Amino acid sequence: MDNNRQSKRRIYYIREYRHFKVSFVETVVFMLLCVLPVGIVTTLFYAPASAAACGWLTPSLERVLGTPIETIGYNFIPGLGQVSALSLDGCLPTRLHAVIVLCVALLVLIITRIVRRVLNPVLIYMNMALAVLVASCIFFIFWPEYFPYTLSDFSALYMIQQASLNILLPVLLGVALALLPACFGLKYLMVLACVASNYIMMVARYAGFLVVLAKFSSLYMASLYFSLGVLFDFIRTVMFFTFAAKRVSEKMQTPEGREQWHWV
I need a surface site. Which of 44, 86, 182, 213 has the fewest CB within 10 A? Predict the structure, then answer.
């Protein structure tokens, strides 16, 4: 009787596992023809890309902000040029401004918890940004004189960060896509879309960040940086991989796709 009970409690693992049939040759070819060239090109052209972005934005920002803007170069990779960033004056918030924003942010946080107890990803993301904003408000209410960054410092940090991510993210995406049994065209398209979106978002966010921080105050600096900065870039990169993986998953459900499974 005891032996029967023990045998019933024992759960055996299945002896068949499905794996993608990933061709080593195709993976190496994709790495050599796509990932490596993209990494080299983005590394060689980060300097002219940042200079072009600053050149495009300077006239428009000077008209909007009504202040002169200077372009300054910062060392990044020795021998490959400097990262260009805009230098302009910002402003710190008054204590009244910080108190008002703190009250509004806390009110929104409370409302989102009351209205919807189960938060979806968008609300979680928004609440994270509001939580950072609350911390910033508390800092500027009690210790504004210890704030260590100017708007020019933030500008330089942002552009150096973007130069790094514009090189790193397409390479990481390409390496991940190389392991999927997807067609070359889809993987090339995802990597190129990642590169293009990186530069588009870099310029658009840069303009928006500088306008908000110069016209209003540095109170929003941390919240913008953490909610729409590095984390947002990684989420967008994962989106491209997810799109490709979804296409592969749909293909694997077809009779033709089932033949690509490898059983061990």
Answer: 44
| Chain-centroid distance, C-alpha 240 | 12
With contact defined as beta carbons under 8 Å apart, do 177 and 34 qualify? no
Contacts of range 246-253, beta carbons closer than 8 Å, 24 or more positions apart: 247/182, 247/186, 248/180, 248/181, 248/182
**pLDDT tens profile 154-175:** 999 999 999 999 999 999 999 9
pTM of the model: 0.81
DSSP E strands in the chain: the ranges are 18-20, 70-75, 82-87, 261-263
Q: Is residue 165 a contact partner of residue 198, using CB atoms and an 8 Å limit?
A: yes
Query: CA–CA separation, 43 vs 65, rounded Å?
Result: 32
What does residue 76 show for φ and ψ, rounded to 5 degrees? -130, -75
Structure confidence at residue 5 (pLDDT): 52
Q: Is the pLDDT of residue 8 over 90?
A: no
What is the 3-class SS of 192-254, one letter each residue?
HHHHHHHHHHHHHHHHHHHHHHHHCCHHHHHHHHHHHCHHHHHHHHHHHHHHHHHHHHHHHCC
Quote the DSSP letter at residue 219: G
3-state secondary structure of 186: helix
